[in-house]
Design a protein that fits this description.
200 residues, mainly beta, Immunoglobulin-like, five-stranded antiparallel β-sheet, 14 strands, 0% helix, 48% strand
Length: 200
């Protein structure tokens, strides 16, 4: 016959195990020391208060102690983002002063020679806009690139060049920064520059 236990924090089980309740029983004494504990309980030697011959004493008994279930492992989701960068083909732009076309001390012709880096063997088509000190020149805007001059292709430096022209005259002397911005028919772009000095 099992020992009768008392105490507000201890619950006595009379069977082979205890039925789970909410909240679960923290611990209880096995009526059969050789019995097994149910799920989430482990067998331990526990100290409880009990009466022996009418006297309350702390006793060592074999019981089941509740062990909280471990939480499920966290699942980490990794999202991979692929970024595709599209590189626009670049143009080489060389700006020069056409001395042979010089008419006066303040008027001359600008040459913007353009070549494609990706397709060095093919003279690019497209347009060129000229600017002076950062201000676009309306009379030299969207000038068409010519792939040859008088039927002769311009091939030099390992590139096939196209050329656009701008007739330019200054009314005052000074130093000016000329830029030529080229846009190829395939969307490629490039910019070249030239600094010129104009005498009175």
């Amino acid at each position: 016959m099992p020992i009768v236990l008392t105490g507000s924090s201890i619950t006595v089980a009379t069977g082979a195990g205890a039925t789970s309740t909410k909240p679960p029983i923290r611990q209880y004494v096995l009526s059969n020391p050789h019995g097994k504990c149910p799920g989430h309980y482990v067998k331990r030697t526990i100290r409880v208060r009990g009466k022996v011959h009418g006297k309350t004493e702390m006793l060592r008994e074999v019981g089941c102690v509740y062990v909280a279930p471990k939480p499920p492992p966290m699942t980490t989701t990794t999202t991979t983002t692929t970024t595709t960068t599209t590189t626009t083909p670049a143009l080489v732009v060389s700006v020069s002063r056409n001395v042979g076309q010089l008419s006066t001390g303040v008027g001359f012709v600008l040459d913007a020679s353009v070549a494609s880096i990706a397709n060095s063997n093919t003279a690019p088509s497209g347009t060129v806009t000229f600017a002076s000190d950062g201000v676009p020149l309306s009379f030299c805007s969207n000038e068409s690139l010519q792939t040859s001059f008088l039927g002769v292709a311009d091939v030099s430096g390992g590139y096939s060049w196209s050329t656009a022209y701008c007739d330019l005259a200054f009314s005052v002397p000074g130093t000016f920064s000329i830029t030529a911005s080229a846009t190829g028919s395939d969307g490629s772009t490039g910019t070249g520059s030239l600094t010129i000095s104009v005498n009175s």
